[in-house]
Design goal:
By secondary structure, this protein is α/β, with parallel strands linked by helices. The chain has ten helices and 20 strands. Helices cover 27% and strands 21% of the residues. β9, α4 and β10 form a beta-alpha-beta unit.
């Protein structure tokens, strides 16, 4: 069967690789790169020390209510088979951010591991190894004194140092990453960092090192070293994107990065072909299934006009605020006037799906039998607050793939 995946982000690329591994015919349609390059390098399943237990307590309006533990595990396993990460589904950890707050994650790169904040339940242990946060004079977007001060306010021992380090070509993390990949630059940085550490300290630096360079730097430092994600584009996120795109190419998956899905040709309750704009022309690409993984409001898959109306752009599908079927048109306010409120209804808007990830249209009926959705397209989650975006993306991708494979049999 031929499946077209709309979107080249975390869920889209992982979906395509899972289908190809099952020997399915799959192509990716996207008007550009997905949001992986913006990733902070962590996979959040849910903001709880025990994510799986917390998910079981969520209401039926949440997208996790449509997703099994097996789907969550399968999605994580599919992704980490290409990008190995540390962590587990049973327990999430707290890691420092560039602002000196703590971010909970279930999975994270090895280069973040030494920064884990030790806790006793929800209580931070004050006697853990202290931090020294090191910034670079020529790098923007990381201010070690600010981060260390905020960690100290949380009860952690932390101090800051700024190292005199700059490179021609710019102040961005990506430029630092390129320069530190050259020759023995990573080892030289490691020696300087090791000399800064006092007994028992662990060193945190902005995330500017790719995997191999970090390993060389940490070895030269000779003390616990970890990276802290900074403002995007993220070095770790770019590395993830490169790995998944290359894996798709190695698997001979067609990725059309300058293509825009604009509609579909349908008959008898199914999508027969996806209408796509490529290089200034419009063509119909025949398909047996479509997986819609183009992101949500942030990616432009949903659009809010000057009158406040929210709409889905390709198929003109109804949007909902949750998986119980509360339509956006039935909701008087999707923007909370209190902008500092815990929740904004607009961020929970998306598509409703059945337990097979098939998209629901008006009245809770299937939009088309072979249209599936995954990732940030799903209604009902406050992903930023819940730290659930990556877990939902990978679990829904796995569930959609499993449904297609089962249907094919």
């Amino acid at each position: 069967m031929a499946t077209l995946v709309i979107g080249a982000g975390l869920s889209g690329l992982t979906t395509a690789l899972m289908l190809k591994k099952a020997e399915e015919d799959v192509s990716v349609i996207s008007c550009g790169l997905g949001a992986l390059a913006l990733s902070d390098g962590m996979l959040g399943v849910y903001d709880s020390p025990t994510p799986l237990q917390a998910i079981q307590q969520l209401p039926s309006s949440h997208p996790y209510s449509r997703l099994s533990e097996q789907a969550i595990t399968s999605g994580i396993d599919a992704f980490t088979s290409y990008i190995p990460l540390e962590g587990s589904l049973e327990h999430a950890v707290l890691l420092p951010t560039a602002l000196g707050s703590l971010r909970r994650a279930s999975f994270y790169p090895a280069s973040y591991a030494a920064g884990i904040c030790e806790t006793d339940g929800e209580k931070i242990q004050s006697d853990q190894a202290p931090y020294v946060l090191v910034g670079f004079s020529g790098l923007k977007d990381f201010y070690p004194a600010l981060a260390a001060g905020n960690l100290a306010r949380l009860g952690l021992r932390a101090r800051s140092v700024t190292l005199d380090l700059a490179f021609a070509g710019g102040e961005s993390a990506l430029n630092f990453s390129r320069q530190l990949d050259k020759g023995t630059a990573a080892e030289e940085l490691g020696e300087q960092l090791g000399a800064l550490a006092r007994e028992g300290e662990r060193i945190g630096i902005p995330a500017v090192l790719r995997k191999g360079a970090f390993e060389r730097c940490a070895k030269a430092a000779g003390v616990p070293l970890f990276q802290i994600p900074i403002a995007p584009p993220s070095v770790v996120g770019v590395e993830w994107n490169d790995i998944l795109v290359q894996a798709c190419r190695d698997a001979r998956i067609d990725i059309h990065l300058n293509a825009r899905a604009v509609g579909a040709r349908t008959s008898k309750g199914r999508i027969d072909a996806l209408r796509v704009e490529i290089a200034g022309t419009t063509c119909d690409i025949p398909c047996d299934n479509v997986i819609y993984a183009a992101g949500g409001l942030e990616s432009g898959a949903f659009e809010r006009d000057s009158y406040g109306r929210l709409s889905e752009k390709i198929f003109d599908l109804p949007l909902y605020t949750n998986q119980d079927g509360t339509s956006v048109t039935e909701t008087s306010h999707i923007v909370n006037p209190n902008y500092w409120a815990d929740e904004q209804p607009i961020f929970a808007c998306g598509l409703a799906v059945d337990e097979h990830m098939r998209v629901l249209g008006d009245g809770g009926k299937l939009a088309w039998e072979n249209l599936y959705a995954a990732g940030s397209m799903l209604a009902g989650a406050q992903r930023a607050r819940e730290k659930s975006g990556e877990g939902i993306a990978l679990a829904s991708a796995a569930a959609a793939v499993q449904s297609i494979l089962k249907e094919g049999r």
